[in-house]
Amino acid sequence: MNKIDIDHSATVDLAALKSKQQAAWSSGDYAVVGTTLQIVGEQLCESVDLRPGSKILDVAAGNGNATLAAARRFCEVTSTDYVDALLDKGRARAAAEHLEVTFAHADAESLPFADGTFDYVLSTFGVMFTPDHEKAAAEMIRVCRSGGRIGLANWTPEGFVGQLFKMLGKHVPPAPGAQSPALWGTREHMNTLFGTKADTIRVVDRSFAFRYRSARHFIDVFRAYYGPVHKAFLALGSAEQAALDADLMALLEQFNEAVDGTLRVPSAYIDVIVTKV
């Protein structure tokens, strides 16, 4: 497993970091990329053995992949995010399928729900991007009932998306002392965050395949719509943008398994199933 370096000596302005991250995820149109990940939400609902009639909270829900998957399984779903435009996308998707879902603006680090409200608390590639990992995990545990389950889909550091964010960090360095989102893709960090409140923690290795017309098509889509990549390009001058483009192309060529000119890039992630004490 790749080592993730963290500078614990640096003081992080978490409020400023959160504001910056919110701006990044609000830019572009994440839903264009997010909808391609729908299968991950479906798989997570199966991984946690979701039961019809249960109360579900989707944290940092984005455009609602886990939200829709749970609602399709006849659950009582509350979908939350701190980007209102993404909640609107999820709301439109639910309406198109005639699914009853409650949508609410909420910060994953300060969830506006009473202790033990939900049977299942889910997040697909969402809560892992919070600045304060410990606070976000504590909030998910708090709102989950005793015996309930927390289900997460998290990108791993060694997989394609983990390497993508590592490469972006070389071009646009993160705030000193900031925790890497990729930590959520390691068993050790999951044990650290949830172990004291968990009856069991199960981790399942998964892989999602990004499929695009070509590597250039992927870059064009992510540059236009995927907030972190969109913002990275905007932060750079023309020469630096060309360097980032070249590094992106090299990374895609490294991971691409297609041999017909299209793009098929597998990206490792884990399903984490925490049963609360």
Largest sheet, spatial ordering of strands? 3-2-1-4-5-7-6
Strand content: 15-25%
Looking at the chains present, what oligomeric state does this protein adopt? single chain
Order of helices and strands: HHHEHEHEEHEHHEHHHE
The first-to-last residue Cα distance is 29 Å
Could you say which structural class the secondary elements and strand pairing correspond to?
alpha/beta
Largest sheet: 7 strands, mixed
Radius of gyration: 18 Å
Q: Can you tell me the overall shape?
A: globular
Write down how many β-strands occur, each being a DSSP E stretch of 2 or more residues: 7
Query: How many helical stretches?
Result: 11
Spans of at least 5 consecutive residues with low confidence: 1-9
Measured as a percent range, the helix fraction is 40-55%
Mean pLDDT: 95
Descriptive account of the structure:
Helices cover 42% and strands 23% of the residues. By secondary structure, it is α/β, with parallel strands linked by helices. The protein has a seven-stranded mixed beta sheet with strand order 3-2-1-4-5-7-6, with helices on both faces. Strand 2 (76-81), helix 5 (84-96) and strand 3 (101-105) form a beta-alpha-beta unit. The longest helix is centred in the last third of the chain and has 18 residues, at 238-255. The protein is globular. It starts with 13 loop residues before the first helix and ends with a strand. The model is unreliable at 1-9 (pLDDT under 50).
